[in-house]
Amino acid sequence: MKALQVITAFLISxxxxxxxxxxEETDKIATVDMQKLLxxxxxxxxxxxxxEGYQDRIQEEDKTRQTTIDALxxxxxxxxxxxxxxxxxxxxxxxxxxxxxxxxxxxQALAKERQEWLKRKQAALAEKAKLEFxxxxxxxxxxxxxxxxxxxxxxxxxxxxxxxxQVPILAFAKDATxxxxxxxxxxxxxxxxxxxxxxGEKKSAE
Length: 206
Fold this sequence. Notes:
about 75% helix; 3-stranded parallel β-sheet
């Protein structure tokens, strides 16, 4: 009985090793640097430029709002200073301080409105950026998957990926082919035509 168990265990072990060995021989593995692909994708540069424009417009509007508030603050101070003039009558002083108080309330309301507006704009911009860059990653992933299918790769790992502890997910892959350069060529093949179209649109606008 024991001899039979030993033989059975040996056969199972041999089968597993044979299976693993065969798997190693058949698996075709490649890697890519997803971070580099995203950074060097021509659409990423265009998207970043677009968002920089959004950010500049938000800052300009915020600057305008702050200028309005600053002007009102100066009015409040001026009214308060006028109300402290000892040569003025009591009624006149009360009138000036009343105006100063009303302006001060307006300042507080505008300052609160500005903060809420800026918070909404920044949140909306962050959400839009998240969506746009997710779409860019999806576009790159589609090219990676297509290339993997066409070239017969079983696995394509992201060398730039890391775990929650910031530890690289892929530390080593034996005989893995780096497809980063090839994928970069594929995702940027339409970059020239895109730039020409952009230049044409600018000239038409002028």
